[in-house]
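About this split. The held-out portion is used to measure sequence recovery: a designer receives only the structure tokens and must propose an amino acid at every position. Recovery is the fraction of positions where the proposal matches the reference. Here is one held-out target exactly as it appears in the evaluation file.
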């Protein structure tokens, strides 16, 4: 992805050459809806432009609030341009197409086409949680299989470090236990490197908040700023699984059973991930089966699932923008990597 990062000069060239966000909205003839501002330190404001006749989204605007956010938005623009010209139409239709740039308080925002579908987050906490969860995992598995098959390149050893260890060491240098964490992480990544998978397009932040569904099919995948044209596909596989599991107990009071997930209680942070790894019941079986099947599709032994999941947890600790979120993932990696796998679900 580094070749897609814009320089200061390139960002400066874009500024001043585009209409302001307000001007663009005024002249579009569309109605604007601010659908959210990310909670990350380097946040982006997302605006949907909706047709006043059909009341359906037509365009989406991502406006950065910091210089780092502006770089991420420009990186996403370049990635979307590349993907529009390289992916088969069926896949390209699930990805936003860049339209133009707009100026937002001196920084360059990105206008893209809007995608159809309902955010996966909307069905996440429905009453029929088992049916919905199975549908979500199946829809993502089909889409990810298509993406990885269509973009598969040369096979290389599975690489789940990619700078993760060095980032963790810098970020948590004052933590006296970090050296032990990194020793275990090195052992995990060494075992993974003994096996190879094809390099593919990688989204890089494939959590369910970035996914849109329609009638059980994945119709939209947004937020491509962390993507890679030739990346490690195991990263996307694991990112979806652990992000989905992380929020299972949201809305459940501490100590209570989580509705729809027998064996899971709301307890310490990350209980859903621990439940997915070590628990028993339909969700842990789905969680582990999803990772195993994904590894098999890529040509890797499904038995690597445990190491791959732990490496994915460590990656979030290294790369998360929010320091508290990162620290919680490091603590979870420490706990899970020192425990015996497949302990009884009652621990969660």
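Reference sequence for scoring:
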């Amino acid at each position: 992805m580094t070749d897609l990062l814009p320089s200061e000069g390139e960002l400066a060239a874009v500024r001043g050459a585009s209409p302001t966000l307000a001007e663009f909205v005024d002249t579009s003839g569309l109605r604007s809806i601010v659908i959210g501002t990310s909670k990350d330190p380097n946040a982006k404001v997302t605006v949907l432009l909706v047709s006043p006749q059909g009341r359906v989204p037509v365009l989406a605007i991502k406006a950065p609030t910091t210089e780092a956010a502006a770089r991420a938005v420009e990186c996403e623009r370049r990635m979307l341009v590349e993907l529009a010209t390289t992916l088969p139409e069926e896949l390209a239709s699930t990805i936003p197409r860049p339209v133009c740039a707009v100026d937002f308080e001196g920084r360059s925002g990105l206008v893209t086409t809007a995608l159809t579908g309902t955010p996966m987050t909307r069905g996440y906490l429905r009453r029929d949680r088992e049916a919905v969860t199975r549908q979500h995992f199946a829809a993502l598995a089909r889409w990810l299989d298509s993406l990885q098959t269509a973009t598969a390149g040369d096979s290389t050893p599975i690489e789940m470090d990619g700078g993760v260890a060095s980032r963790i060491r810098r970020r948590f240098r004052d933590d006296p236990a970090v050296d032990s964490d990194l020793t275990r992480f090195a052992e995990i990544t060494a075992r993974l490197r003994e096996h190879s998978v094809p390099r593919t397009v990688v989204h890089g932040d494939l959590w369910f908040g970035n996914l849109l569904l329609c009638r059980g099919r994945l119709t939209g995948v947004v937020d491509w700023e962390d993507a890679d044209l030739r990346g490690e596909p195991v990263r996307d596989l694991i990112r979806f699984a652990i992000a989905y599991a992380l929020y299972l107990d949201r809305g459940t009071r501490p100590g209570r059973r989580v509705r729809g997930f027998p064996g899971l209680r709301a307890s310490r942070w990350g209980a859903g991930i621990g439940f997915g790894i070590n628990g028993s019941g339909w969700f842990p079986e789905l969680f582990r089966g999803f990772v195993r099947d994904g590894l098999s599709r890529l040509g890797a032994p499904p038995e690597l699932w445990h190491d791959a999941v732990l490496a994915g947890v460590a990656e979030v600790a290294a790369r998360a923008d929010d320091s508290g979120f990162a620290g919680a993932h490091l603590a979870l990696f420490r706990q899970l990597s020192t425990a015996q796998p497949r302990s009884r679900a009652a621990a969660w």
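Annotator remark: The chain has two domains: 2-113, 118-347.
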